[in-house]
Amino acid sequence: MFGASAGVGRALARALAAAGHDLVLLARDGADVTAEAAHLRAMFAVAAEGCAVDAVPAAGLPAALAGILAGPPIDVLAFPLGLSDRGDDGVLAPERVAALVDANLTAVMVVTSLVLPEMLARGSGGVVGFGSVAAIRGRSSNVAYAAAKRGLESFFESLRHRTSGTGVRVQFYRLGYVATQMSFGMKLPFPAVSPEYVARRVVAGLGRDRGLVHVPGYWRAIGLALMAVPWRLYRRMKF
Amino acid sequence: MAVARGAGLSFCGASFGSECLSVDITAFDRVLDYDSESGLVRVEAGIRLAPLLEFLLRHGRTLTTVPGYGSITVGGCIAADVHGKNPARDGSFIRLVAGLSLFHPAHGVVEIAHDREAELFRATCGGFGLTGIIVQATLRTQALAATGVEISVSAVQDPASAGDLLVELSAAGDFAHAWLDFARPAHGFGRGHVTLGRLVAGGAYEPGALLPPGRGWGRVGALPVCLMNGWTLRAINAVYARRNGRAGVVRREDFAASMFPIHGNELYFRLFGRRGFHEYQALLPRTALPHYVERLRAATARLGACVTLGIAKLFDGQADLLRFDGEGVSLAIELRRDRNSPAFLALLDEALMEAGGRPNLIKDSRLPRRVFEATCPEADRFRAIRAAWDRPLVFRSELSERLGL
Fold this sequence. Notes:
Mean pLDDT of chain B: 94
Number of helices of chain B: 13
Shape of chain A: globular
Structural class of chain A: alpha/beta
Oligomer: heterodimer
Radius of gyration of chain B: 20 Å
Structural class of chain B: alpha+beta
Mean pLDDT of chain A: 94
Largest interface: A-B, 7 and 8 residues
Strand order of the largest sheet of chain A: 3-4-5-6
Helix content of chain B: 25-40%
C-alpha cells in the first residue's frame, strides 16, 4: 500500500488488516508507517511492516522498492495516495509541478509496472487506484493535481483493458470529499465522508472487476451534471 | 501558545483557550507494543480507552482505572489523572502509567516516569497538558479473571451513611459507588443506594461491546430547549432507582455497561438543552460530609436548583499537586445551568472551603481562582515546576489562565 500513513490509506490499511491481510505500508513519513505497522500487528495479528519511501522523484522508486519486490508476491497493490498544493493555480514553480505529477501519477505507473509482470504470470492479483472528483472538469485551482488525476483515470482504464481476462483485477475509485488532512479546515459544498467509509467500500469491492466507481455514489450524478454545463456558463462558475 | 486536545470530553476549558492553538492528538491512536510477560502496553496518547480495552480484553487483560465514557483518550486520562470505579482501592490513573513521552518545543521528546524526572512526571499526570504534549505512554495492565459482573445494592438514608457503608464495602468490590437523590430538598434529600460490583465468572463478552454506540443520542447535538425540570428529574430518578436500586437482591450486569455506564444513556445530557449543565465534584473529609450536605440542601432549597445527579465515591489516596486525590468521600453533583447557578455554585464553593475539601478542577468550568488557591495548597509548587520546565509558558488553556497557573 502506497500512501498508508494518513487519511484513506490508514483507514484502508486497518480495514484490510481486520480482514486478515498481511500488509507492507509505504509512505514518506517512516516513523508514522512504522507505528501504524506495529499497531496492525498488535491489533489484528497480521504481518505488517512499514517502510519510508518517497514517491517524489518517481524515478527513484525502482531502487527504493527493490527489497520489497524481492519479498513474497503481492496480491493487491493499493495506491491511496494524493499530493495537493494549495498554490496549485497554474503558475506553480517547476519542481512543485513535477512533485504533483510524480506523486499523483508517475509513481503509480512506475510501481504498477514493477509489480504487474509477476501478477500476470501468476494469473491473479489486484490493483486499486484512487482518483479525485477534481479530475471531472478542469478549473482554476488544483490545476496540476487535476491533470495528474485525470491522467491516472486514463492509466487505470488502460490497465483494466490490458489485464482483462488475465485474472488480475483492477478497481478505480473516484473519491468525493473525504475528511482527511487534505480537506481539513476547508469549506466544502458537499459533506465529507469518513476515510473508514471509503475503506469499507474498497474492501467490499476487492477482487471485483470495476471501472470507475464514485465514492460516495452521489458524485456520479454531480459529475454528469458538471459535464453537462456549457462552457459559456462553466467559465463563470467559481468553485 | 498551545495545548493538546484529546476527545474534548472535559467539563472545562482544558484543551483550548483564547489565543491558544489546540493540538488535536486523536490521529495518534495506535498500540505500539504489548508485552504479554510484563503486561505493559505502549500506546500513542490519542488512542481512546474503549478500543484499547477491546484490545486488552482479547489478551485477558484490563486497566484498573476506567472512567465512565469510552471515547476518552489515554492522553486525556493522564492529563486529568482520572479515577475509575473504585478509587479507594485502585487510586487514580497515575498508578497505571509506567512511563510516558512528553514533547516540549524547548526540550524535544523526553521520557519520564515515577523514577525519571519524577517531579515533572508527577506534574504531568494530572497537569492538564500544561507541561507539554503527552505523545506516548506505557501503561500497566492487569489480568482480568472474569467478565461477569455481580451487583449488590444497599439502600442508604443520607450521604454520610453512604460514606460509612463505602468504607465498609469498598475493599471487597471491583466497583463501588453511591447514587444519591438530591431532587427534593424538603423530602428525602440525599437518600439513595450504595452499589457494589464484583467481577465473577460466567459473563459473556462480545467483541465490540465496549465501543461507544455508533448511533443514538451520543451523535445528536443538544436539544434546542431544556427539558430538565423538577418533573422530569423526579421521573428520571424514580426510573433509575427502580431499575438500579432494588436493595437486597444480587443481580447480574453486562460487563460493557459496568465499564461505560454512560454509553447509550447520552439522552440524559441532551435533556439539558443548549444551556447545558454544571458538574461540581468535591473530595471531602468524612467528618465534614453531613455539614456539607446540609449546606447543599439549603442552597438547593433557596435557589430552586435542579440537582440532577449525585454520586459518591470513596477515596483513600494522598493529595499531591493539582491531582484530585486524598482521603475522604468525593461527592459529584450535576445541575441544570440556569440563572441561579452562579450563586448556587458560589455557595458550594464556600461550603467546600469551610469543609476543607478539594475541588475536581477538570469538572468545573468556572471555579474562581480564589477558591482554587484556598483549596489547593500545592498550587505554587506546581507553578514552580512548570516555570522551571515550560519557559516561556508555551502551554496554556482557559483553565490555566483562569486559575493563574
